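hey team, just a heads up i'm posting the complex here instead of the shared drive bc the drive is being weird again. everything in one block, sequence lines first with there labels, then the predicted structure for the whole assembly after. its two chains so it's a bit long, scroll down
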Amino acid sequence: NAGVTQTPKFRILKIGQSMTLQCTQDMNHNYMYWYRQDPGMGLKLIYYSVGAGITDKGEVPNGYNVSRSTTEDFPLRLELAAPSQTSVYFCASSYLEGGNYGYTFGSGTRLTVV
Amino acid sequence: QQQVKQSPQSLIVQKGGISIINCAYENTAFDYFPWYQQFPGKGPALLIAIRPDVSEKKEGRFTISFNKSAKQFSLHIMDSQPGDSATYFCAPNTGTASKLTFGTGTRLQVTL
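-- predicted structure starts here --
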């Protein structure tokens, strides 16, 4: 099983450009998440989804948009990129089984905005 | 409002020693207490987790100790190995949506 796959792994954007970070999972998990990780910091939740067609804001949603048309895919859209969005972005998915909330993370997308 | 405080920020331990990382939380509704391990260039991975109905859980060299009254839980790594060198995050959470609140991380370095 591939788990959670993120593309691209690296990207450099110019200020004002837009891009979509792709995330797909093959575990049939209902819950999916986008986090950003700044150097030396923990992960902050950007957006999450509890199922296809349902999304909600996390802690730091400004400057981002998401959609969830299928169970497998949860793309993150950056509009008008800003230097403050330079970060490592992680997509994750989770299940609820016996009260255990197991998260599976992708390997991340390192984004630099210049 | 900072709900999760993790300490120390960094830790250097000799091979064979014990590594201890602490996590303090404020939200009494948290009902699942995991530790995640992250290697450079990788996403975090679930290492070990505990439910509040037990005070300790051991998996191999890794042990979680949980103190409900103090709202704290800790990760103990026995016989620490260089391969344990990574960043560790606590991430207590609650509810079916399970939005993780991460600690700021502890960078562990195990020296030879």
